[in-house]
Amino acid sequence: xxxxxxxxxxxxxxxxLALILCSCGGADRAHQLKVLNWADYIDETVKTNFEQWYxxxxxxxxxxxxxxxxxxxxxxxxxxxxxxxxxxxxxSEYIIERMLKKGLLIPIQKDLIADSIYYFDxxxxxxxxxxxQMAPTADVKVSDYTAGYMWxxxxxxxxxxxxxxEDLQSWGxxxxxxxxxxxxxxxxFRDVYSVLVLYAFKDQIAAGExxxxxxxxxxxxxRVAAVKEVLLNAKKQICGWEVDFGKEEMTKGKAWMxxxxxxxxQFAIEEAAEMGVMLDYIVPKEGSNVWFDGWVIPxxxxxxxxxxxxxxxxxxxxxxxANMSEIGYVSCAGxxxxxxxxxxxxxxxxxxxxxxxxxxxxxxEPIEVEGxxxxxxxxxLNPVYYPDKSTIDRCxxxxxxxxxxxxxxxxxxxxxxxx
Length: 419
Hints:
single chain, 3 domains, D-Maltodextrin-Binding Protein, domain 2, globular, 14 strands, alpha/beta
């Protein structure tokens, strides 16, 4: 979700179809691994070291052919329509769900991995549970087809110099006239719709008539119309629909707040701090979407063995930490094999004096870290990375929109063109 957007979706899909003709025909696919991942979404050292690690484990050479994408749907088109033979792909949750429905995924062959280097169990049970919600039928075990990579929430990045945190307790903040021409909106219609539908139907949620899961999963004309009305009423406050320039506008004070993803928020906070500007992040009280990206093996893969090793390699705690540190997003690693390593790196009472309940992610039992038993209900972690359980309890998963995708896209285009 998370890195880039759905801007000019139709044009990019046409471009993807044209690029399909430029495949790697004639390559020695038995010794080549083709990976398709989001742009700027891996630590370069981790990527570079894979070929040697694979040789050390298998005695076989492999060439890593690494390509990137900016839009989920564009990448999916290359596989679904063009039958591109990528061995590993890293889509978002609703694309994984769509690929499962359409039979476009191969189960991860975990039996190819020696027990001594088996890292799949590093994935947090929290992530496994959320992924299982993508199952098209009850008999499908989603973890057989995907391993979680990064996850996060959607909220507001804001500048406390201009905006009080109390003003951002609700998504309705985008309607506040005192923020006229000061709000940036992430140009990502799925994510924006998923959070604003919670605001539009907040009274029904409070009355127990609707759940957040129902509102985000079941896209209806009534709900799309309600979100459209909210956005139309917020137009005077919106100063731009940003792809990746949000942090710069926030740092310069041209924008005061930005509806965005937690990973972008953390990146912006760190970049702004280097310039002497303080930014912060909040998830409003109505709740949010919690998003995930995961590794899968597409139907037309040619090197399933190397693909399986690559996914396992990315699940190693040391690699998960390196990737997390480099890109600003939160690793899905947090299972029993990784929890101590993750907390040794992240838990810091001096930096994060206010403890958060991260038991949803690391489990209920105390975790031994350097001889100390840590209570997962009171960990000193970056709340942008690891929101408190009370926040996560108000979040729901996005799902494949199916036929409703066109309805959402039409609404989004009308909003952006409205005066």
